[in-house]
Amino acid sequence: MVAVAFFSLQLKGKPPGLPSNPLELHAKDHTLSLTLHAAITSDGRNSFYFNGKPDAPTLRLSPGDQLKITYVNDLPAKATETCAITPCMDMTNLHFHGLAVSPGAPQDDVLGMMAMPGQSLRYTVQIPVDHPPGLYWFHTHPHGESHRQVLDGMSGAIVIEGIESYFPPLVGLPERVLVVRGRSVVNDPQSADLKRRVELSSDICGAESEPPEEVFTVNGAVRPQIEIAPGERQFWRVVNASADRYVDLQLDEQTFEIVAMDGMPIALHDPNHPTRITDHVLLPPAGRLEAIVTGPAAGTARRLISRCVDTGPDGDTNPAMVLADLVPWSGANSLAKATKSSLTR
Ligand SMILES: [Cu+2]
Known about the structure:
- This protein is mostly beta strands.
- 9% of the residues lie in helices and 34% in strands.
- A hairpin with a 5-residue loop joins strand 3 (31-40) and strand 4.
- The two termini are 21 Å apart.
- The structure holds copper (II) ion.
- The site of copper (II) ion (CU) has 4 residues, from strand 7.
């Protein structure tokens, strides 16, 4: 018998624009079982749907657990978007990025497993008992169409539990899962407004002179506010789920205390020096950062930004912009309480 536990952070008095963590699904009795759909949104984007909503849940499992996904392709047979190989055929499948699992069906097989519109796939992915704990992610991966679909936002986070066993000070820290995605502003009537909101500079960034094509979103929101009390320590798990853009993360005049990169705890290789302090972290597409962030002093405005990344004369323009604002809040204890269970299980 398989059951799914639902776990969602609902922050009290949440002002508009605040990103709560994505809905979280926990394995129960060593199995996480869910049905995920691919479908088109009202504004014409390809999206994962869970329980009828255009969201990707965070999948939380422990080493030794099994992930069972029924993946249903509800995308229209006649695509409205253009792909690398045109026209898009709206086929899709799943890739479990970074997980040390089998590439053979019915696991992480991106070549043989493919669902055309109207078809379904059944995944059973066995997480090895010795799998490192940390942040991973899943995304659609049909060759020729994955760029379009990932740019549309078809991605989600995977957490393999147990990172606190490598770095015990994490126990009890409020945890945030931040999925950073690119959002195309090409042919978007809101383009000017979106660029203004993220403070996209008109200065040329790097050697490529083409105009910026994307802005970053955090958990689906453009420049949301992230609540953190002065001096509060939060554990942030950030994935660069953009299809093709670099994120060079920086907090105004603050540092990151890095615990893990790309799902690999630093303590796994260097137990005597389990963290690194830095003022910015380059995350290439698919890169992941897990770090402790400390709330700025009261009355100081702090932004989470991505710095300009020079991708060279033939690269994609990758300008600086604001990802989110840090704002003080008083509910730190309830967030800590709400997230503690996931870090102590
Ligand atoms: Cu990937």
